[in-house]
Amino acid sequence: MNAPAPLPDAEALLLRLAERMRAAVAFDAAFVGIYSGGAWLAERLGAMIPGNHPVGFVDVSFYRDDYSTIGLKPNSRRTELPFDVNGATIVLIDDVLYTGRSVRAATNELFDFGRPAAIELAVLVDRGGRELPYEPTYCGERLTVATDLSIVLSRDGDLLRLAAEPVVR
Amino acid sequence: MKIAISNGRLVDHAGKLDRIDTLYVAAGRIVAIGDAPEGWHANRVIDAKGLVVTAGLVDLAARLREPGFEYKATLESELHAAVAGGVTTLACPPDTDPPLDEPGLVEMLKFRARSHNQAHVYPVGALTVGLQGTTLTEMGELSDAGCVAFSHADVPLLDTQLLRRAMQYAATFGYRVWLRPCDPHLSRGGVAHDGEVATRLGLPGIPAAAETIALATILALARETGVHLHVARLSAAGSVAMVRAAKADGLALTCDVGVHHLHLCDLDIGWFDANAHLVPPLRTTRDRAALRDGVADGTIDAICSDHAPVDDDGKQVPFGEAEPGATGLELLLPLTLKWATEEKVPLPVALSRITSVPAAILGVEAGALAVGRQADICIFDPDAWWTVERGALMSQGKNTPFLGLQVPGRVRATLVAGQVVHEG
Amino acid sequence: MRNPQLDAHGALTHLLTLEGLPADVITGILDTAEPFVSIAEREVKKVPLLRGKAVFNLFFENSTRTRTTFEIAAKRLSADVINLNIGASSTSKGETLLDTVDNLVAMDADILVVRHSQSGAPHLIAQHLNAHGRTHVHVVNAGDGRHAHPTQGLLDLYTIRHYKRDFRNLTVAVVGDVLHSRVARSLIHGLTTLGTPEVRAIGPKTLLPAQVEALGVRVFHDMREGLRGCDAVVMLRLQNERMKGALLPSAGEYFKHYGLTEEKLALAKPDVIVMHPGPMNRGVEIDSAVADGARSVILPQVTFGIAVRMAVMSIIAANR
After folding, report:
1. Sign of CA dihedral B403, B409, B411, B415
2. Do A67 and C46 lie within an 8 Å CB cutoff?
3. In chain C, what residues touch B199 (CB-CB under 8 Å)?
4. pTM here?
5. How far apart are CA C123 and CA C119, in angstroms?
6. Out of A101, A108, B135, B411, which could bridge B86 as a Cys pair, Cβ 3.0 to 4.6 Å?
7. C14 CB near a chain B CB, below 8 Å?
8. CA C242 to chain centre
9. Is the peptide bond before B181 cis (omega within 30 degrees of 0)?
């Protein structure tokens, strides 16, 4: 049995992602992070990438498609979009892209605030396993991960870390 | 029909009978206890080994719902229920539709009841016409037709002047008056005891004072008129104390309690269980304790079922809208036994509260297990517990707060006038 | 006796009363309500949580206010809303309460919001649904007789928490007709469950229920004494019928003893908040100056009320 490959360093991936975005992202694109990993990334990227990039956050709890099975978990995170969604170019930012359902939920939520001109997707890690037709515009790294593991981004002070944890059923 | 009931524990408190022996029945009467009569050949022998043999129970209040409320229950179903519960004599209150205020109605009821050949039915007549509280009924005529007493059922009597005159009239002729103490103003709109539980549940309350104030009035008028008084369905500790004091003071009166009130209190309403909507209401644990003590020390003379069958439509509604009452004929014996065991009251004494004592209050020959008396007999297994469920009840009324619970005491056979009318 | 509001996993499946609900369930509802408050500030004031679900407002007692807030709350969750105003008694229509409920369940109701003049009506409905295995249908009590108005209790708790943060330091007074008030009962249960050290009931003896102390309140008949040091004052509505029932001689005399004026309010803490479930009888239980004054949070209560009802419906609809 092979030992699982070690995960890449999150900070290194962030630098790579920022470089890729710097080259192509619109000057006044808004960066909207999906809580909570995407929110940390959006904050960091907003500081790292030159231009006029308002930073916003979405909490997708009310737009998830698994509400009828797992219900609603109370949390104190609020969707904050400090810019006009109508006509905006938005880069949706998440830590791990997997099935694509969080991206769908976030997109639906954005459309309840107005009609964006364009939405791009930036993710730190793409682990494949897509169930919906979404692909990242900007990606830190592609990884292959066993289905019984979940990739989690955590923050220790100012440092971001990636870890693999067994899936909690 | 010659029947021998053998090896049972024969109990009759008044007759100081409590031993295992054999009882002989012939021509509708008890002809011997112990040794068989001369030339005895039994048509039937009932083996009562391990069972208790007592006089058939006498229930002071069982609503049969006829005439007028046949959708709730009928004479047939309720008289079957009575003997299934070991009740061989019962008094039915006058709150039928129309109320029992005319001799014709009383005669018809007695006739129809007799035709079923089950328990003996003694109607209690209405004290006022239509139970309206304004005109006295023809108590003489009603007495001749078979009424053993006169009451106002659960309808409050507002007019104290009328109440006094009704008592004076009844006292003139020695008629018995049964009254349930209830002040109509204090109880108006109330559906539960006015206490902590009603406050939590937001239910309009009936304070204990509604009973004690009315009882004070009734006792004062009884003292003055000398009427033969029976107070029905005590529910409050204060009432028990008042009766105790009145008796100590020499006032001749009897009283009863509904068997549900010996066991339940307002907490048993739980989350608005309409089966616990009773009249009088279930009061606090302290009231319940006083009622239990009252029966134990004889302040309260008799226990009755206060049988009130209600159909499902009457109970499957919000608590306040539900028709009050519980089915009780089949629970009178088990619940009396349960109380006796819990309070360590000897079985013969406990049984007397549902046999000889109520018979004396009714003024009829019943409730005695003795040679020469009518063979109305209840044979039961005191150790057999059974679950109170819809299928187990013969009454059309399945409304009981004891649904789903287990109670002790299964009737194995009931005889009325020497005939076996129920076997279980 | 199992709590009929909780399902087999201990999760909230009906909201019938605040009494007996674990503190964490109540806090969970308040926490869930927070993000819903900000939805009112969006252009599209909707989230898709209850899309495809049917919410039936079954009001046996008229109430435009409460019915409207439930309707707004349900629509903001993208649910379909059907209003049934049965008016007086269901029996006047010949159909029993439970028959009406069975018909609505057959019409695929997911949530029944019920207001009834009889205490215990929502409990009867919930027990009926539980007994028949209809676990996907949920009951929300919008007010039953004098018994409970749990969503009002929750929005009152939310309001107090919003301005005062920690219940464990507070003195809260409920003033007026506690006897007839389901709002008071629900709030008292909620406050005591969340650890409020002093809950006061202020009113004349005629308007306080038997053994009200057993609910966990301290009784005051003198309003000035009762208001001393309060962090929050909740004024209850006084209905005209109370004068007819010999409970009170007149509205004027009531106002004199139990009406909230600036002078009486000055006895409470300087940062006291004044609440009222509405609609207000100005000049009877509360002075206009106080109702419209700086200490009044009566209008925010309404906003919080929509968010709280959204929270309740979204929590129960997911449990079965």
Report:
1. negative
2. no
3. 209-212, 214-215
4. 0.90
5. 9
6. B411
7. no
8. 21
9. no
